[in-house]
Structures are given as structure tokens and as C-alpha cells.
Design brief:
Membrane topology: Single-pass membrane protein
Strand content: under 5%
Helix content: 40-55%
InterPro entries: Cyt_c_oxidase_su4_fam, Cyt_c_oxidase_su4_sf
Subcellular location: Mitochondrion inner membrane
Structural class: mainly alpha
Distance between the termini: 98 Å
Family: Belongs to the cytochrome c oxidase IV family.
Largest sheet: none
Oligomer: single chain
Order of helices and strands: HHHHHH
Number of helices: 6
Number of strands: 0
GO biological process, one term: mitochondrial electron transport, cytochrome c to oxygen
């Protein structure tokens, strides 16, 4: 049964009425556990032997490293991060940042240096080849069809007028000023 007193204090209704003093014991137990975990974590960090993983020029060496070496570097950096971050050297901070957010794996850039120039050169080459093929085809092709001559167009326009084609707004309408067909 929960404490049903007239006190409106919210925490008093969370504990059994027979143990109103247990609230402080719970807080002390949680605080003690947190402190114990922090101290134990520091001891684990300080008592572990330091590995001989080199972090110098990690950005340039990462691509040539084997998966086992990469794993060793990653584990070493995880161990380093368990300690005080203010005690990390600049090299360790750079290596940690590179392993977490560097341009490797899924973050490898799709394009490399000089990629834009190769794309422009390729597009120019394709346009030049296609233009050459088009002009060669037109030069070696037949004459223009007879239906494209000016004489054919005039005769087609006269025929359509005689047939009263499109009388509302087209070629046979009154006051038509278009070019015809």
C-alpha cells in the first residue's frame, strides 16, 4: 500500500508507507554505485599495459593497413578514450577523430582529384564524335526529299485552300496571314 498522507510531496507516494526512510537509502546506493564505477573505470584504464600502436600519420597509412592493424588501432583508441580526454595528446585526438569521421570506408569520396577535368574531356570527346558522325551521315546521304522544296509547299497550300481545310482558324479561314504548309 502506498503512502496516502495529506502531504502533496510527489516522492512520498512512490515508496511503501511502512518504509518512508528508504528514499535516502536508494539515493545513497545509486550514488555509491556511480562513484564505484567511475573509480573502477579509472583503475582499469591506468593498470592496462600500453600497446605499441603508432598513431603518427594515421590518415596517410590507413589505406595501406591490414584489417588486423586497423582493429588494433581502433581498440587502442577506445582504451585511450576511457581515461581523461583532457590528457589526450593532439596526435591521439586527431587519430580518434579520423577513425570516427575520416574519409575511409563508407565515407570515401566518390570522386578523386582531377575527376572534373576527365568528365569535361569525356563529354567534349563524345560531342565531337557524335557531331562528326552526324556530318558524315548527312554528307553521304541522299538529296533532300522533293517534299521539302518551296514549290511543293506552295502547291500544298493551294490544294488545302481549294479543299477548304481548317476553315475556322487555319489556312482556309478569312484573313489568314500564316506561312501555309
Amino acid at each position: 500500500m502506498l503512502y496516502q498522507g495529506t502531504n502533496s510531496h510527489a516522492s512520498s507516494t512512490l515508496y511503501p508507507s511502512s518504509f518512508p526512510h528508504t528514499h535516502n537509502k536508494y539515493i545513497m546506493m545509486v550514488r555509491g554505485t556511480n562513484i564505484l564505477m567511475r573509480v573502477a573505470g579509472r583503475r582499469l584504464y591506468t593498470t592496462r599495459p600500453s600497446s605499441s600502436v603508432s598513431l603518427a600519420n594515421l590518415e596517410t597509412r590507413w589505406a595501406t593497413m591490414s584489417p588486423a592493424e586497423r582493429s588494433a588501432v581502433t581498440k587502442h583508441l577506445e582504451e585511450i578514450q576511457m581515461g581523461d580526454w583532457k590528457a589526450l595528446s593532439a596526435e591521439q585526438k586527431k587519430a580518434t577523430y579520423f577513425v570516427a569521421f575520416g574519409a575511409h570506408g563508407a565515407r570515401t569520396p566518390v570522386t578523386q582529384e582531377g575527376h572534373g577535368l576527365r568528365v569535361i574531356a569525356g563529354v567534349g570527346l563524345v560531342l565531337a564524335v557524335s557531331s562528326g558522325l552526324m556530318y558524315a551521315t548527312r554528307a553521304g546521304g541522299a538529296e533532300h526529299p522533293h517534299t521539302l522544296s518551296e514549290e511543293w509547299r506552295q502547291k500544298t497550300t493551294e490544294y488545302l485552300k481549294s479543299q477548304n481545310s481548317n476553315p475556322i482558324s487555319g489556312i482556309s479561314s478569312e484573313g489568314y496571314k500564316g506561312k501555309g504548309y
